Amino acid sequence: MDTRTVTVVDLAATSVRALNAALHEQCAGTELSDWRVYNPLGQHAIACGIDGDVHVEIEGHVGYYCAGMNERASVQIDGNAGVGLAENMMSGLVRVKGDASQSAGATGRGGLLVIEGNAGARCGISMKGIDIVVGGNVGHMSAFMAQAGNLVVLGDAGEALGDSIYEAALFVRGSVRSLGADCIEKPMKEKHLNLLEDLLVRSGMRHAEPHSFRRYGSARRLYNFHVDNAGAY
Amino acid sequence: MCGIVGLFLKDRTLSARLGELLTPMLASMSDRGPDSAGFAVYGEGRAGVVRITLQSATGGEPAFELVLEGLTAALETHVQELIRANHCVLTLPASAREAALAWLARSAPHLHVTGVGQRIEIYKDVGLPTEVAARFELSTMRGTHAIGHTRMATESAVTTSGAHPFSTGMDQCLVHNGSLSNHNSLRRTLVHDGFAFDTENDSEVAAAYLTWRMRQGLDLGGALEAALDDLDGFYTFVVGTESGFGVLRDPIACKPAVMAETDDYVAFGSEYRALVDLPDIGTARVWEPEPAKAYFWTHAR
């Protein structure tokens, strides 16, 4: 059953550029593979631009833009992640066991980003279809200008959640410090509960009860200019 | 950009290695700030004795030897000096501090005082952080806490005096990543209240602001909280006092910050990369300090 090979890379001895090149080369082939990366040492752009069915486990804290542009691959970070985790992710799964700094999942178009700890400011900024599940809290201006996808927060959300949101659904279990311009609370319907349950199960957070969340989204008042809204721009 | 590093030792276990631990931290932040670098080191200190760090724009030893002779004669007291490249630390009785500073201002205006205190020494210069650290033999320094900065200049020129840390009060210093937008009006207020400024630098104003608040009776935490109301702009600050170590980020929090804590130390880095060589970092609690929240630690003394 287990036909996958495991490749071990020590980033204390190998450059990030060499690791990423090897991952990209691997994806060009057909063989499925697992990768273990040690000593990430907070370096930037680790496991970026992967386009293939590989699984990468990173043991330690990573720097900026880890797993950016990810397609199909599953990347797990056993530590914290710096700014811009899984930026512009297309598909696949990125999971960080610790915390993520600001702009996690920024502009993401698809796939699932799971942050088991807290996310910093601007989580899911300009998200375009990605699903993001955060086990802890998210910082201020999360889901700013969010266009599509779902942001699930088991903890609290900071100031100006969903500011200038287009579409996308935001689910928060804890408190929301404040809602941003044009973001409002919306009723939780059956389809939302089902969607939420699916995301929680896939994220390994089935302990969270879907009914305990509140849903937020766009009031759609900023779609077209109206002079009465001038103060909201 | 700019890079900040800081290390606050909770007890004396690592004090002999303070400089050795800070050196790679500073070096790792070179690409965030290649213009200049500086650091403040809080040594053991002795009651009744004060240290004055002098910086010479024109080079080292002869200038400092003349100062030592002149100062010893003028004060009629014993003054020791330790020269490191273009910096010199004078050690003299605390009772002679004001007379010494007045003599230096009058008789050695070509020398710049970077820091004064019972424990603080401040070294800063233009150049790559690794070169600056080597020039002053940072790796050999001991102490209880230290703060370093690598600078990419934005608001004022790349000069030695524009390098951080800035010190505006006894044993106090501040490093800054960011830029303040209300530093001119704040500087006028502080000048009115008796502060003199060495530079046009916005970060020096932030340092003086905290000194001003602490002179009014606030502790370090209180001064940092007051700064949230009065300082406008982008900032991540790391601040040192004689026995304290503080961190503050503005509410927008564009400027990065990572902290780590173990039983032995609290460490700060602009990025996690700065912390990777610290002992037991693998098991340290690592977190991002929250925006608009004052963090500070103090040694019980």
Instruction: Indicate the CATH topology of chain A.
Output: Pectate Lyase C-like
Overall form of chain A: elongated
The largest pleated sheet of chain B is described as: 7 strands, antiparallel
Specify Rg of chain A, calculated over alpha carbons. 18 Å
Please explain how this structure is put together.
The complex is a heterodimer of chains A (233) and B (301). Chain A is of the alpha/beta class and 233 residues long. The N and C termini of chain A lie far apart (57 Å). Chain A contains 2 helices and 11 strands; from the N terminus they run βαβββββββββαβ. By secondary structure, chain B is an alpha+beta fold. In chain B, a hairpin with a 3-residue loop joins β10 and β11. Chain B is globular, with a radius of gyration of 18 Å. Classes of the chains: A alpha/beta (233), B alpha+beta (301). Chains A and B meet through loops of A and loops of B.
Entry keywords:
heterodimer; A: 233 residues; alpha/beta; Pectate Lyase C-like; eleven-stranded mixed beta sheet; 2 helices; 11 strands; 11% helix; B: 301 residues; alpha+beta; Glutamine Phosphoribosylpyrophosphate, subunit 1, domain 1; Alpha-Beta Plaits; 2 domains; seven-stranded antiparallel beta sheet; four-stranded antiparallel beta sheet; 15 strands; globular
Can you describe this structure in just a few lines?
In chain A, helix 1 (16-28) links the parallel strand 1 (5-10) and strand 2 (33-38). Chain A is an alpha/beta fold. Chain A has helices at 16-28, 190-202, and strands spanning 5-10, 33-38, 54-59, 74-78, 93-96, 112-115, 128-134, 148-153, 169-172, 183-186, 214-218.
Secondary structure layout:
The complex is a heterodimer of chains A (233) and B (301).
Chain A: E1 5-10, H1 16-28, E2 33-38, E3 54-59, E4 74-78, E5 93-96, E6 112-115, E7 128-134, E8 148-153, E9 169-172, E10 183-186, H2 190-202, E11 214-218
Parallel strand pairs in A: 1-2, 2-3, 3-4, 4-5, 5-6, 6-7, 7-8, 8-9
Antiparallel strand pairs in A: 9-11, 10-11
Chain B: E1 3-9, H1 18-28, E2 36-42, E3 49-56, H2 61-75, E4 80-84, E5 87-93, H3 97-107, E6 111-117, E7 120-126, H4 129-135, E8 145-151, E9 173-180, H5 183-192, H6 202-215, H7 220-230, E10 233-240, E11 244-249, E12 258-261, E13 265-269, E14 285-287, E15 295-298
Antiparallel strand pairs in B: 1-8, 1-13, 2-7, 2-8, 3-5, 3-6, 4-5, 9-10, 10-11, 11-15, 12-13, 12-14
Helix pairs in contact in B: 2-3, 5-6, 6-7
